[in-house]
Amino acid sequence: MNLEETLADYDFPLDESRIAKFPVATRDESKLLVLNRNSGQITDIAQFKQIESYLVPGDVLVYNETKVSKRRVFLSTPRGRIHESVFIESRDPEGKEWICILKNRKKLKLGDVLFPSASENHFCIYSGNEGDLSILQFKEKVDEIDFEIWGNIPIPPYLKRMATKEDEERYQTIFAKQLGSVAAPTAGLHFTESLRAKLEGNGVQFLPVQLQIGYGTFQPLNEEQWQEKKLHKETFEVTAETATILNGARKEGRRIISVGTTSLRVLETIFEKENQVYVAGKGETDIFMSPGDIIFSVQGLITNFHLPRSSLLLLVSTFVGKELTMKAYHHALEKNYRFYSYGDAMLLV
Fold first, then answer.
1. CA-CA distance, 71 to 150, in Å (whole number)?
2. Most CB atoms within 10 A, among 48, 119, 226, 338?
3. Contacts of 322 (CB under 8 A, 6+ apart)
4. Domain ranges within the chain, ordered by starting residue
5. Nearest CA-CA partner of 340 in 192, 189, 186
6. Where are the transmembrane segments (predicted)?
7. Structural domain 7-68+172-348, CATH architecture
8. From the CA atom positions of the chain, what is the Rg in Å?
9. 323 φ/ψ angles, rounded to the nearest 5 degrees
């Protein structure tokens, strides 16, 4: 990291009208910007499915198979006041204590009782705060099955709307398998089953990893996080089969392309630079990368257009450099690309 740089160097003006509030009619028909890291050339592609022209037999696309949980739950007091919440993670093995983002918490007192609106059998106790997060204590275990009954898909707050039935399908990727995230790995939203089949028919290989995405992905960085390179922790898992295939592809000189920044975080976490190998395993990662660091694990990245001053924008800048990243973003603004989760995509090679 250049110590003379600040987060302000990774800011850009973005009118709210440029934020995609809804997805395009068909997943693979969003626009695609292709950026060549070596030449700096930018190419505008009308539809994402034309990405096949930029992929070759032997390429390996690594996707995040996480599935978004219905963690946005409307809690009510005995008198009927509603508190919107997003459950982040359980704090104990029994699944009784949860931390969450809780709206209007100043109106609550310690020990107040809250009921999930769709439940007659469960209730929780408001047990205080930790910074921007709140602690809720349940009498009985709460798990993903409960959230599927009580909750709503936690679409990003910047969409400034309630989730619809369509979001339950469209805010999940075709790869979604393992419940546990509060946000979608948005680069994967551009793929359809037909596009995947076509690419596989062309000799492109798809490999899964898993990262449970936390709400921190939506939060702008502050200067302290920037200087100390501290980021929120997220749980990941990579199977032995995936690691073996990745190592074989690397030895054969095949390109490994990350489908999204979440997959890239996993790959950089499990890649041993000293031995130049991927190591299977599971655990937590708080990896933070910014320009000046070197990404060793991939040769390409598919990604959406991210928030200003965000860790995801810094990760993209680490891969292609700050100047090229900002060049691409300003080009996207000029060419009316759609931004954020339901927006258009970039291929960086």
1. 8
2. 48
3. 5, 9, 10, 291
4. 7-68+172-348, 72-150
5. 186
6. none
7. 3-Layer(aba) Sandwich (3.40)
8. 21
9. -60, -45
